[in-house]
Design a protein that fits this description.
The complex is a heterodimer of chains A (216) and B (242). With 216 residues, chain A is an all-alpha fold. Chain A is built from eight helices and no strands. In chain A, helix 1 packs parallel to helix 8. The longest helix of chain A has 38 residues. Chain B starts with a strand and ends with a helix. The chains are: A mainly alpha (216), B alpha/beta (242).
Chain lengths: 216, 242
């Protein structure tokens, strides 16, 4: 049997943490793109589109991420497509992230006074022009802090990719535990690494919030 | 020549009948003040004229042409009708100059240089030539409202609608804004204003329209109407505001 030194454990965990970071990044970017599209759909006055977006949000906010992970992994396979744990994890996390971001951003857009839309319309601007020149620049300032804050949830959410066999930080921890039989030590290290990933995010969210509040 | 004409305009909010058949005719260069209690439909009337609110029956013509829902959809209407709001509605993330330049640039496709010339000219006109690079939040309410006027003028509208534009201002700032309106009126701009400034309505306005319960209750020459009201409702209203 191979002996694992503390150094070995940390080295392996940090290696796996790179996958956690990559998964978080891709899911966050994917979620942002999908959420942008959904936000645009929601702002149109088409009530059918708005309903569809609402259903989407309810669906992915109202079910555990773990189930979404399972469904993406096994569901896509059932349809006859080969899907890797990595792709399934990206898919599930993108859906999950976008459902929350749309809702966060809606709140930000709703804080802008209705008069901004009306004044823009009275100046003859089109819907897209109003979005681009008036609404988005202002909503972005408000949205940036809660969005960065939510990224912490995405990082922690990646832990669930371990259940479909994707080797990221949590899965690596489980495997190292199976080899070393030192659960407390291993999982404490895992937790510390998560904390080191998430703390800078929540801290910067707080700083951003202060910064944008003062200058308004 | 009639510039804005409303014939039998009816507007409902659900079951609530806000406008009950409004007839109104405004000639080019005329200054018309709409007065009345809150809830009498004054602001709604104004918002129907520029397409911010839909109406259910009747019609509005602008410059002799019927305003269609397509005009509103493609925002053709907005090019002829400017609007100033009680709450200014300046764009807080843009400087004063950018606030004025934006619509001429992206809606009228003017070049930056052209738009800048227009913006400077309009700011000069409202007495704020030195505020081009300021942000709106650095200005007083009266100054912000004058920027809003400059912004609307930059689109060279045929008629300017003013929705209680001095109501949110400190009393000492009202005068500056009214002075700008007075100057516009003297230059021949057509103005339709919902206002509580009776002195302004009397001295600068040509005509006063008194609205009551969703109808044009009484209208006529401003000096005559305000000094010799015919209906009991207008008499009561004037008694209450003066």
């Amino acid at each position: 049997m191979i002996e694992f030194s503390n150094y070995d454990i940390i080295r392996n965990l940090i290696f796996a943490a790179q996958w956690t970071v990559l998964l978080s990044l891709v899911a966050f970017i994917g979620g942002t793109l999908v959420a942008l599209a959904l936000t645009a759909l929601r702002l149109t006055r088409n009530s059918i589109l708005q309903k569809l977006v609402a259903v989407y949000i309810e669906l992915f906010q109202g079910t555990p991420l773990l189930m979404q992970m399972f469904l993406c992994f096994f569901g896509v396979s059932l349809l006859g497509y080969e899907i890797s744990a990595w792709s399934a994890a990206i898919l599930a996390l993108t859906l999950f992230t976008s459902a929350f971001l749309v809702e966060i951003w809606r709140g930000c857009i709703d804080t802008l006074p209705k008069g901004q839309w009306e004044a823009s319309r009275c100046l003859g601007m089109s819907f897209l022009q109003i979005l681009r020149h008036i609404i988005l620049p202002q909503a972005l300032r408000v949205a940036i802090a809660p969005t960065v804050g939510f990224s912490v949830q995405v990082v922690k959410g990646t832990a669930l990719a371990s259940v479909i066999g994707f080797v990221e930080l949590t899965k690596a921890g489980t495997m190292l535990n199976n080899a070393t039989f030192e659960p407390f030590k291993v999982f404490a290290m895992v937790a510390v690494i998560y904390f080191l990933l998430c703390y800078p995010l929540s801290l910067s969210s707080k700083i951003l919030e202060k910064k944008f509040n003062v200058s308004r | 020549m009639s510039l804005v004409n409303l014939h039998q305009v009816h507007k409902y909010y659900g079951d609530f009948h806000v406008l009950k058949g409004i007839d109104l005719d405004v000639k080019a260069g005329e200054v018309v003040s709409i007065i009345g209690k809150s809830g009498s439909g004054k602001s709604t009337l104004l918002r129907c004229v520029n397409g911010l609110e839909e109406y259910q029956k009747g019609g509005i013509t602008l410059d002799g042409k019927e305003v269609t829902s397509e005009d509103i959809q493609v925002r053709r209407l907005a090019l002829s009708v400017g609007m100033i709001f009680q709450s200014f509605n300046l764009f807080p993330h843009l400087t004063v100059g950018e606030n004025i330049m934006l619509a001429p640039t992206i809606v009228l496709n003017k070049t930056k240089a052209e738009a800048k010339t227009i913006a400077e000219e309009m700011l000069e006109k409202v007495g704020l030539g030195d505020k081009f690079d300021r942000y709106p939040e650095k200005l007083s309410g009266g100054q912000q409202q004058r920027v809003a006027i400059a912004r609307a003028l930059a689109m060279s509208p045929k008629v300017l609608l003013c929705d209680e534009i001095t109501s949110a201002l400190d009393p000492e700032l009202v005068g500056d804004v009214l002075k700008v309106l007075e100057q516009l009126a003297a230059e021949g701009m057509t103005l339709i204003l919902v206002t509580h400034e009776m002195n302004f309505a009397r001295d600068v306005g040509d005509r006063v329209v008194f609205m009551h319960e969703g109808k044009v209750w009484e209208e006529g020459n401003s000096k005559k109407l305000l000094s010799e009201p015919e209906t009991e409702e207008l008499r009561q209203f004037i008694g209450a505001v003066l």
